[in-house]
Structures are given as structure tokens and as C-alpha cells.
Design goal:
The protein has 153 residues and is mainly α. The chain has 5 helices and 2 strands, in the order ααααββα. α2 (48-69) runs parallel beside α5 and α4 packs across α5 (127-148). The termini are far apart. The protein has one domain: Four Helix Bundle (Hemerythrin (Met), subunit A), CATH 1.20.120. 55% of the residues lie in helices and 3% in strands.
């Protein structure tokens, strides 16, 4: 009988920043600002589906900025993949943000291995929570992850 042992995680040496992370941060700021203003003043034009996608782009940009600043990239770009990459790179920092981001995946079930995908836009009433989630992630990235590096307390 062959026994298998779980491979131990490899300790990675911190890498140099990937150039362009600052642009991702600026883009994240712009997308989040646009989504907040659109939700507040232009709900006649910006549907919940459009707002969801703008917020999702802001979130992705913030994650990319943080990861690139620390020399790494996500495996993929679903919210679940972005959370996994953040948790690997910055252990014990995401807190309740993780669950909220993973929850956002339910609106766009897109799998590269499947020819079918499902898009179900959120209700307008769900947008404020998504905006708050984007703001929480922004604050984490700007105030902790970019400011202090990997050793976040």
C-alpha cells in the first residue's frame, strides 16, 4: 500500500515589483469612483449589471496592484482566484473581504472548461454592499499592503 503525503508549501523569496502596478492602482481608484458616482446620480443609465462590472474591474485592479507590487500575479481572474492569490501572498489580511468577493462570482459563472456560462445581474439594492466591499479592499491595499509590504499585522 502506497501512502501519499501532502506536499509542503514552498517558501518563496520576495520578488521585485512587476512594473506598472501603479497604473493598476490608479485604474482601480477611477473605476470605483465612477461606479460610486454612477450609482448615486445615474441609475437611469448605469444598470445593476453595468455597475457590477465596473465594481468588479475596480476590485481586480486593486488586487493586481497589490500582487504586482509584491512580484506576483493571480492564477486567473475570477473573484475566487483573486482571493486565493491575495490570501497566498498576504496571509491573514483579507478577513471578511474574501467572502464578499467570492460571493460576487455567483453573478458571472464563467468557466474556461465549459462552453456555457451564466450571467445573472445583481439587483440595484445589492450595489451599495458591493461598493462598500470595493472600498474596504481599496483601503486594505492602499493603507496596509502597499504601505508596509508582505509583513502586514
Amino acid at each position: 500500500m502506497m501512502t501519499t503525503t501532502k506536499p509542503q508549501p514552498v517558501q518563496l523569496i520576495p520578488m521585485e515589483a512587476i512594473t506598472g502596478w501603479e497604473e493598476f492602482l490608479r485604474d482601480g481608484e477611477a473605476y470605483l469612483k465612477t461606479a460610486a458616482a454612477a450609482h448615486q446620480k445615474r441609475q437611469d443609465v448605469f444598470t445593476p449589471g453595468i455597475l457590477y462590472n465596473i465594481i468588479a474591474m475596480a476590485i481586480e485592479k486593486f488586487v493586481m496592484a497589490a500582487l504586482m507590487r509584491h512580484g506576483t500575479l493571480p492564477y486567473n481572474h475570477t473573484m475566487t482566484d483573486l482571493v486565493e492569490s491575495m490570501e497566498e501572498t498576504f496571509p491573514d489580511t483579507m478577513g471578511d473581504i474574501s467572502a464578499g468577493l467570492i460571493e460576487m462570482d455567483k453573478y458571472q459563472d464563467i468557466c474556461a472548461l465549459d462552453d456555457n456560462y451564466h450571467i445573472s445581474p445583481p439587483a440595484m439594492e445589492e450595489i451599495p454592499d458591493m461598493l462598500e466591499l470595493g472600498q474596504k479592499l481599496r483601503s486594505l491595499v492602499v493603507n496596509k499592503l502597499l504601505a508596509t509590504g508582505r509583513s502586514v499585522q
